[in-house]
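Protein 1 of 2
SEQ + STRUCT:
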Amino acid sequence: MKFIDIAERGNSSPTSYVLGTLLIFVLYFVGSLGILADIHLNFPTLSVESMDAAFYQTMGHTRFLFWVLFPYLLVFIGLLLHIRLVHKRRTLSALTSRDHFRWKRFFFAFMLIIVLMGALLAIQIYADSFGHGHAFVFQFNPAKFFPLLVVSLLMLPIQTACEELLFRSYLLQGLKLRIKRTGTSILLSSLMFGLMHIGNPEIHEMGYHMLIYYFLSGLFLALITTVDDGLELAIGYHFANNLIAAIFVTTDWQVFRTDALYLNHQDPGTGWSSLIFLLILLPSLFLLFKRIYKWPSWKEIMQSM
């Protein structure tokens, strides 16, 4: 059975999906209380509304990052249990249509993005060293970086796997079950993924047109998940992308403000260059995956939509 159609198995009643949706919101809310409790007990003078430089300096970037990612741990575990106990499906069926998780695919996508994005960042930093702006500042501090590395390697795989489980599995399969059209389900789940990021600092700094960036990313991840019949490639790509944002280069305005190796002082600008780069990168990656994993022809893919 195709991965996108797996929701047809087990209990697929509307009630089971209503309960699943409520569970997601409740668990995320409960997880979000962690940072409030930490502030109340250990940093009573801080206000969570401020989120200024003094806030991060007092609490610490890595501690804050952990609490930002913590709700995803609860949602990930809770949703997998819900799929097993309420939807009466194998837990693995929420991740792949195969009888095992294809780790080779995950690690290939992960390493590909790490190498590609790492090389592009290295070129940017090298070119900046010859300029007068000095946008990239090396800020390696072992006492801060290694705790960041530990938290990132432990929590970011869960956060990215949770988002893929939610948008490219539970939501996408549920939409296909109801509306019966693969293409429409992919578009709707991608739109929801984009709108989920509407509160990100990047949107405030660059403009609402940057939601297109997240929509296109969601569309790409939904497509490769559907065609490849599993989340392995999507999780690998997503994890690598977020890991680079967390430990390699950070800014004062992005969603992950960390003690990364480099601090980028560049003005965020309008973000159009990032959109153009994405329009080149994602189709190229799709073609590469299609060739390596011998996906169906374009005609067959379009007919299946």
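Protein 2 of 2
SEQ + STRUCT:
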Amino acid sequence: MTGKVFDNTEFRYFITARFFFTIAILMQSVIIGWQVYEITKDAFSLGMVGLFEAVPSIATALVSGVIVDSRERKKVLLFAYALMLLCSVSLFIVSSDFISALANHKIYIIYGIIFFTGISRGFYMPAAQALLGQIVDKDSYPRAVSWNVSVWQVGAISGPAIGGFVYGFFGTGVTYVTIISFISVAVLSLMFIGSKPRPVLDSQPMLSRLTGGIKFVFQKKIILGSMTLDLFAVLFGGATALLPVFASDILDVGPKGLGILRAAPSVGALLTAFYLTKHPPVKGTGKKLFSAVAGFGICILLFAVSGNFYLSVLALALSGMFDSVSVIIRQTILQIFTPDEMKGRVAAVNSIFIGSSNEIGAFESGLAAKLLGTIPSVIFGGIMTLIIVFSSSFAFPSLRKMELKEKESGI
């Protein structure tokens, strides 16, 4: 089965593009976080980074979903990648102080560029998910999603690690040149994927198309439940935005240590995702989903109270293992339960629920850290995650009892 997925040449190009793009955006995320904290020395400013990316991502998501479902999906994804490439070039120029007049306004310009990366996110998340559904057949969805997540996690490990070490040893300019090179490779890889037919849309008015994805999600309780569970878990349980504070002020490990901390969740997630490529979670799926999110919350609590670098890395790695199970189950649910003509819009709703919740969660983390202190804010987030799991298990009983194997069998 695994071999059949990789016998698909276009899937290999898709995975290659995702790999290099992931490395680039995770490198960029690490460097931006460190730069912003160096400039401001304020945890709240790290939260503002998330807010400036989340607002345009959410604002464009519904429109991008309609565009993805009415245009050639590869071209939409290429547009999103190209926009991110332009943003990276702009960050390189600003960070390198080529134009001296920009130096006094660097933080505001960085926020402005991040705004446009949010627009890119609003397009590339639904476009990538919908394009994957056109590249592989339905029987290959669970393993294709597992491999897709696995490759993303490899990039997510490489990105923070490469970003931290390159920035620590060679500085800002070389780091951004590396980022730009990786995004360029991703763009070239996408170009080798053949054109796909546009989905056949009904004759609904534009407003109905814009809201179609939301209506579909709210009608499908299993999809709604999985999105809601991850939305609030990521919103409250994410500690990523505050890692520069932990690396600089609490663990005292600098940018190299920050790269390791950022990579740690992806190491755990990668190991789990590779395991799930051979053992997809199709039995007891709902129970595994709730258990995984609860485990994630417990790991965040462990990270918050740890004052030891190695224990902190372990806690983050374990959180990544649990998060990987949740991500793979949720993405498989979206692929299996969503008809092709709706995948762009449903993926756009998913990006509002899940993708942007990372950035909103970053804002929440920064605000909570300012009000409560860094460590108490992370403890608060871990506790809230466990409360969300408990309440969601009662609010969405069909999700808790779900078995993907039954759906694949046509039940």
